């Protein structure tokens, strides 16, 4: 289940029930745009649900709106790491806060939603409309 | 006749499957035998590889302490498991003795891993504090080489 505001509008706050597959992660076949479940780097007991916006070696441009103005900076994602970000730009604690995340923390790739019923279907690599 | 021998085989097959399942669960959640190869934990462990028993409960219950030797997934290569000592826990300030020097405060949910071999170890001095979720188990006993039998302190 994915609960919380960080993946709006793709997933609901009150929690969507998802099917994740483990093989992509184990085989290293994760791509930019995939939604994944991962252990949180800041709390090992918590599992978070975010989108992959960059893989190791990619240079990512981060838009950060701390201090009122929006600033941009670039960084290169180190070997063995990925950049996780929630679809909800303003209300998501993700790599913009804790930096690139080691890929060993990834648990599985979200590929299908089974709840709510009106949201049945495959979860794609592009943020979708809310249900 | 045929039916009886088929059911014998099925019975044995089921017992084997149960055994394998039990061992798998035991090894992932309680105790595991692993090998630590490489120069980074000299002189504690040998280069050619010591065979160690690791227990999983301390990590799962969050009861890891400074000085414990742990097995962890490497942050720079998710397919690799490394064997290092914990020199700091979340919230600790650690003084890094390396070419760059300086102190670092270990963020929430992270630990500082360092090999006993000061000069030949790729560890947190290189890749920074490591998320505790990467820790796999605590090394507590060595079973090989035979002259090194005993608890790992």
Automatic annotation (TrEMBL), chain A:
<feature type="active site">
    <location>
        <position position="50"/>
    </location>
</feature>
<keyword id="KW-0472">Membrane</keyword>
<dbReference type="InterPro" id="IPR000223">
    <property type="entry name" value="Pept_S26A_signal_pept_1"/>
</dbReference>
<keyword id="KW-0496">Mitochondrion</keyword>
<dbReference type="Pfam" id="PF10502">
    <property type="entry name" value="Peptidase_S26"/>
</dbReference>
<dbReference type="InterPro" id="IPR052064">
    <property type="entry name" value="Mito_IMP1_subunit"/>
</dbReference>
<feature type="domain" description="Peptidase S26">
    <location>
        <begin position="4"/>
        <end position="65"/>
    </location>
</feature>
<dbReference type="GO" id="GO:0004252">
    <property type="term" value="F:serine-type endopeptidase activity"/>
</dbReference>
<keyword id="KW-0999">Mitochondrion inner membrane</keyword>
<dbReference type="InterPro" id="IPR036286">
    <property type="entry name" value="LexA/Signal_pep-like_sf"/>
</dbReference>
<dbReference type="GO" id="GO:0006627">
    <property type="term" value="P:protein processing involved in protein targeting to mitochondrion"/>
</dbReference>
<protein>
    <recommendedName>
        <fullName>Peptidase S26 domain-containing protein</fullName>
    </recommendedName>
</protein>
<keyword id="KW-0378">Hydrolase</keyword>
<dbReference type="InterPro" id="IPR019533">
    <property type="entry name" value="Peptidase_S26"/>
</dbReference>
<comment type="similarity">
    <text>Belongs to the peptidase S26 family. IMP1 subfamily.</text>
</comment>
<feature type="active site">
    <location>
        <position position="6"/>
    </location>
</feature>
<feature type="domain" description="Peptidase S26">
    <location>
        <begin position="76"/>
        <end position="115"/>
    </location>
</feature>
<dbReference type="GO" id="GO:0006465">
    <property type="term" value="P:signal peptide processing"/>
</dbReference>
<dbReference type="GO" id="GO:0042720">
    <property type="term" value="C:mitochondrial inner membrane peptidase complex"/>
</dbReference>
TrEMBL record, chain B:
<dbReference type="GO" id="GO:0006627">
    <property type="term" value="P:protein processing involved in protein targeting to mitochondrion"/>
</dbReference>
<feature type="active site">
    <location>
        <position position="84"/>
    </location>
</feature>
<keyword id="KW-0472">Membrane</keyword>
<dbReference type="InterPro" id="IPR000223">
    <property type="entry name" value="Pept_S26A_signal_pept_1"/>
</dbReference>
<dbReference type="GO" id="GO:0042720">
    <property type="term" value="C:mitochondrial inner membrane peptidase complex"/>
</dbReference>
<feature type="active site">
    <location>
        <position position="40"/>
    </location>
</feature>
<feature type="domain" description="Peptidase S26">
    <location>
        <begin position="14"/>
        <end position="99"/>
    </location>
</feature>
<keyword id="KW-0378">Hydrolase</keyword>
<comment type="similarity">
    <text>Belongs to the peptidase S26 family. IMP1 subfamily.</text>
</comment>
<dbReference type="GO" id="GO:0004252">
    <property type="term" value="F:serine-type endopeptidase activity"/>
</dbReference>
<feature type="domain" description="Peptidase S26">
    <location>
        <begin position="103"/>
        <end position="144"/>
    </location>
</feature>
<keyword id="KW-0999">Mitochondrion inner membrane</keyword>
<keyword id="KW-0496">Mitochondrion</keyword>
<dbReference type="InterPro" id="IPR036286">
    <property type="entry name" value="LexA/Signal_pep-like_sf"/>
</dbReference>
<dbReference type="InterPro" id="IPR019533">
    <property type="entry name" value="Peptidase_S26"/>
</dbReference>
<dbReference type="Pfam" id="PF10502">
    <property type="entry name" value="Peptidase_S26"/>
</dbReference>
<protein>
    <recommendedName>
        <fullName>Peptidase S26 domain-containing protein</fullName>
    </recommendedName>
</protein>
<dbReference type="GO" id="GO:0006465">
    <property type="term" value="P:signal peptide processing"/>
</dbReference>
<dbReference type="InterPro" id="IPR052064">
    <property type="entry name" value="Mito_IMP1_subunit"/>
</dbReference>
């Amino acid at each position: 289940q994915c609960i919380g505001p960080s993946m709006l509008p793709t997933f609901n706050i009150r929690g969507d029930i998802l099917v994740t597959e483990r093989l992509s992660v184990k085989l290293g076949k994760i791509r930019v745009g995939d939604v994944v479940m991962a252990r949180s780097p800041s709390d090992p007991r918590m599992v978070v649900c975010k989108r992959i916006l960059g893989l190791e070696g990619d240079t990512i441009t981060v838009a950060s709106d701390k201090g009122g103005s929006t600033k941009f900076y670039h960084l290169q994602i180190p070997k063995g790491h990925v950049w996780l970000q929630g679809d909800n730009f303003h209300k998501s604690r993700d790599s913009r806060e804790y930096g690139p995340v080691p890929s060993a923390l990834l648990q599985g790739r979200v590929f299908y939603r089974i709840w709510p019923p009106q949201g049945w279907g495959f979860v794609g690599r592009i943020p979708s409309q809310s249900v």
